[in-house]
Amino acid sequence: MPGGNFWYNKLMLKIITVPAAILHKKSTPIKKIDQEITTLAKKMIDVIRHGSEDQRIGVGLSAVQVGHPLRLLVVYDPEPQTNLILVNPKITWRSAKMTQGLDHRNFPYEGCLSVPQIFGLVKRHQAIKAHWQDLAGKIHAEKFSGFVATVIQHEEDHLNGILFTQRVLEQQGQLYRLEPTNNQDVLIPIKL
Q: Which CATH number does the domain housing residue 41 bear?
């Protein structure tokens, strides 16, 4: 049975889904990292690690996706199983090399808790350098590559009011709907 905070957090944070207008607005910088911001970040980690109200689990989440248009995002890095909390993140460098889809994964398609059951391949920079503050206000700068770089780019897009579906369409890619067919989930191309 999950810890007490999990059930409290699950009830407190609701994932905002399309077509909510807030998802298309640019988030504002956090001026002061206080207990409210710290609590929000920890609740967001609970959502990506343990599931949202409808049991969906993610690998990243931006504050705007839970109704707080603030420049805050969280990422779960499965290797080495750590949580990253980025306050006021800014990508300051992007590699020339691009990737399409989530590398080294059995399921390379991007999805989003705010766009349920929709997936697509997105071209993103293979490596990035990001600057951000942690919950203590300390400034960090770090280079990320592969999976974590992709997730940070996806979440930073949220902070700028951009959904992954927009990226797929800009890149003239294909969107898919995940549908149960014959007792298994299948990606069905969406006709636009």
A: 3.90.45.10
Residue 125 annotated as part of some ligand binding site: no
pLDDT in tens, 71-80: 999 999 888 8
Q: Which domain holds residue 124?
A: 4-189
**CA-CA distance, 67 to 62, in Å (whole number)?**
9
Rounded Cα distance between 24 and 163, Å, is 8
Query: What's the pLDDT tens digit per position in 118-141?
Result: 999 999 999 999 999 999 999 999
For the segment 158-176, the average pLDDT, to the nearest whole number, is 98
Residue 112 is labelled as binding a ligand: yes
Neighbours of 20 (CB within 10 A): 14
Give the count of domains, the chain.
Answer: 1
Of 36, 110, 142, 155, which is the active-site residue?
Answer: 155
Asked if 155 is an active-site residue, the reply is: yes
**Mean pLDDT on 62-72:** 98
Cα–Cα distances (Å) from 26 to 20, 68, 82, 123, 162, in that order, read: 13, 11, 27, 22, 8
